[in-house]
Amino acid sequence: xxxxxxxxxxxxxxxxxxxLCVEPVRAALGGDAASVASDAGEMRGTVHAELLQGYDxxxxxxVSGTRVREFLNRGGVVxxxxxxxxxxxxxxxxxxxxxxxxxxxxxxxxQSGLHKSLRVASSSLVVESGGHMRAYSxxxxxxxxxxxxTAAADxx
Amino acid sequence: xxxxxxIIVAATLLAGCIGGKGTGTNSTPAAPTPNTLAVIxxxxxxxxxxxxxxxxxxxxxxxxGSTTQCTDVDHVLLDTGSWGLRLVRSVLAAGxxxxxxxxxxxxxxxxxxxxxxxxxxxGPVALADVTLAGEVAAKLPVQIMDDSPGVxxxxxxxxxxxxxxxxxxxxxxxxxxxxxxxxDCGDACVNASPPMExxxxxxxxxxxxxxxxxxxxxxANPVAKFAADNNGFIVNMPSLQNANGDATVQGELIFxxxxxxxxxxxxxxxxxLGADPATGDFNATYNGGTTVLPALIDSxxxxxxxxxxxILPCTDPPPFAGISFVGYYCPAVAPQTAFAVNTGxxxxxxxxxxxxxxxxxxxxxxxxxAVINLAGGGGSIRFTYGMPFFYGRKxxxxxxxxxxxxxxxxxxxx
Lengths: 156, 414
Description:
The structure holds two protein chains of two kinds. By secondary structure, chain A is of the alpha+beta class. Chain A has helices spanning about 1-15, 35-40, 90-95, 100-110; strands at about 45-50, 55-60, 65-75, 80-85, 115-120, 125-130, 135-140. Residues about 1-25 of chain A have low confidence and may be disordered. By secondary structure, chain B is mainly beta. Chain B contains four helices and 25 strands. Chain B has helices spanning about 1-20, 90-95, 165-170, 220-225, and strands spanning about 35-40, 55-60, 70-80, 85-90, 110-115, 120-130, 135-145, 160-165, 175-180, 200, 210, 230-235, 250-255, 270-275, 280-285, 295, 305, 335-345, 350-360, 375, 385, 395-400, 405, 405-410, 410-414. Chain B is globular.
């Protein structure tokens, strides 16, 4: 058992990740308000909260000019994330546990890599990611968690 | 003997006339620089056959200053939606060309994480002498897409989706980014604090830290670095022979705008769309909608890409096992027509409507590499005019801050 742990540590090192530096798991999409703060910390950004009737928006603005908005429903769960700015976002961070499903769907798309914009959608996850160097934008949401009365088009 | 002499005399007089000096002396003008590069749409490099709507060019690459350490790299994807030349390392190695990584002030190798729609490329920045037709971009910073076994980008690279460093994953031997900007990142990578996670300084041990890089050291659009014919370029593609797809299509990439007899900007009938100098995008609305979308004319995208929930998305396999069109539209009744209205940004604020058609890709000719009625779900955030837009058109691209006739880049025109 100990041997396996050491192997796991060595594997993480081999992958370029220092396991001693890994922070507690935080997932933006599907996560809670604490994960927003964690994201803001990692992105070295400032948070501005906007409280609406059906949901709250926590907006993180990063020094580079990239803006990330995380939408929390009344249950305190992040059900949508949007982004725009000059740098591509770290979707692994923003999508959290949904990133694996995203990359699986990307692999299924023909010629996904070169598209300047693309959409992957299932009943549980929608990701629209687009842009090019100097101008990236996109959004991801969990359809099942969108509050009643809120349209996908409102998630901007 | 006498007839030979008359021909020489006649030729001399003629040369005098062409030169416009009328002195009768030998003043034949220097031949213009060959400025036309062949473009071919075919099924792609052998390692990645089966590509659709990929426009390729062949790029001549040399170690800086050398005339012997050179190779011709074929099947480099022509991309009007990015900036800079990127070549797969193993392809350069097969051509016996080894380019050395540029180093920063600390002597660390400069490497780049370049973000594409569905993933990232990773590898060092190196200088190369690059020749396209007769035009030379000397000591051009290029990115080497590092497909060497065991290469792992830093944890901050690859989080955008897939890692796209090899020929089979990328569908090309490299990427020739010749859009409307001179460098890929520009000022945003020169003095950001903290630096953008795009350029990195890497120690010999492989520890990489994001850092700023001067514009002159950034991966650059070779056209902007030519000695002449550097204010823009034209992509000239013929119409398809068969509306359901052609096996190959040949067109041309013409360098310069209004600098030679073959690259004049037409005085009449040209729609000139100014681009946002920060993003390179103009504006578009789709099918009469009110949402203004950033838009791009992008030979690196294979289809018209936009969001329309009313059109059926392709779902396969089965019964189309082996030929996946997941991500594209499969309208029930084809061809379905649609339109978008473009508006330029800034002083070149023309408005123009583009009509196009969408068909079920399963109805295309088997093994066709060039198809026109192809559209896909690009999401509700952008509108992209991919390769189908280019067939049967001459599309003009004006590079930022460069003047072409009465227009200043960045702009698109058709």
